[in-house]
Amino acid sequence: MLAIASALLVIASAAVADPSEDASTSGAGGSMSLHDNLPWEDLTSKLSPTASLIGVSYADYVKDCFSEFTDFAPSGLCLPHLFCGWDKCYPRPSTNSHSNETLAQYGQELMAVDMADLLRIEEIPEPFDPANPDSFLNDESNPSLNLPSMVLFPVVASDVVAAIQFAKAYKLEISVKNSGHHYLGASQRKNSLLLNMNRYTQYSPTGIVDCDVSMLDGSIAADLSDQPCFLSLAKNKSAYVRVGGGENWHKVYLAVKNANEAQEGGVYKYHVVGGAVGTVSPRKCQCLMII
User: Fold this and answer.
1) Which one of 70, 98, 212, 276 is most buried, counting C-beta atoms within 10 A?
2) Which of 199, 222, 245 is the last residue of a domain?
3) Same domain, yes or no, for 227 and 264?
4) What are the backbone dihedrals phi and psi of residue 86, each rounded to the nearest 5 degrees, phi first?
5) Are residues 164 and 284 in the same domain?
6) Residue of 187 and 33 predicted with greater confidence
7) Residue 185 sits in a domain of what CATH number?
8) In the predicted structure, residue 172 carries a pLDDT above the cut 80
9) 248 and 175 share a domain?
């Protein structure tokens, strides 16, 4: 398998705002988001018509992610494990991302069956009610919350470019999420501008291209449009599939399966080798996967 991509990947951080309000307004409960004073309307004006920029809050995480969901959460905040909405996927309040804990202590706490058992490991900062272990999760002021300030759903590459330029101008960190499957919660970060790629243009359903071996007798076009075929043929592969930055392996596999079933006689012409887990992204960028 060969992946060709031009990517600008940036890691990030995040705060709290209200998705029902404009991107430049204050967060839920009237508290100011860390980046509320930024001219978010400037970024919005540079986005494609179907891209969206929203403020997010702890309330959105509760509403979209606390209970089982079967459809895409509007806020784009959900992660594979509920606790990953907090630093290091651990909701115990900490003002320094639990950096004062030893690895052994941290592991011991994570493995505690009853959250009240944590009281026997070290003193737990307020607020914590031993009779209500879920108090960690229900505290919207918990300093361990690991939520972004704003979420952008880009649709085309220019949306991503606009976001990166805005972040650079105002010294914002950027986090990137495709499926959000990262088991340690690295798909989003506190006080960041989160780029949720779920609505990015999907290419794989119509992106399979067959390559003619005779083209090797010529030269690569000046615009590099035929370069993917040259690379495919050089690897003795007769086709490639274009994969968008928001697509995961499930979507790629499904596209290849549908293309095979559309062949006369049901011949499986195409094969692609990738991850075993469908939620994993082939790339967090627009790319080409050789098949």
Assistant:
1) 98
2) 199
3) yes
4) -120, 160
5) no
6) 187
7) 3.30.43.10
8) yes
9) no
Query: What is the per-residue pLDDT across 72-89, written as a single tens digit (0 to 9) for each?
Result: 678 999 988 888 899 888
DSSP 97-112: TTTTS-HHHHHHHHT-
Per-residue pLDDT, averaged over 103-132, amounts to 50
**Same domain membership, residue 156 and residue 35:** yes
**103: containing domain:** 87-136
Q: Are residues 69 and 155 in the same domain?
A: yes
The whole-angstrom separation of Cα 5 and Cα 250 is 19
Torsion sign, CA atoms 16, 19, 75, 37 = negative
Q: Are residues 161 and 67 both part of a single domain?
A: yes
Which H or E run includes 151? strand 150-153
Instruction: Please tell me whether residues 94 and 76 are part of one structural domain.
Output: no
pLDDT grade for 291, boundaries at 50, 70 and 90: low
Among residues 172, 199, 226, the one where a domain terminates is 199
In whole angstroms, what is the distance from residue 82 CA to residue 65 CA? Answer: 7
The reply to whether 282 and 185 lie within a common domain is: no
Residues 261-279 pLDDT 10s:
998 887 888 988 887 888 8
Confidence of residue 52 (pLDDT cuts 50, 70, 90): very high
Number of domains in the chain: 3
What's the whole-model pTM score?
A: 0.72
CB proximity list for 56: less than 8 A, separation 6 or greater = 16, 17, 18, 19, 75, 76, 77, 147, 148, 149, 150, 151, 194
Report the amino acid identity of residue 54: I
Helix (H, G, I), strand (E, B) or coil at 115: helix
pLDDT at 280: 83
Residue 25, pLDDT > 50, answer: no
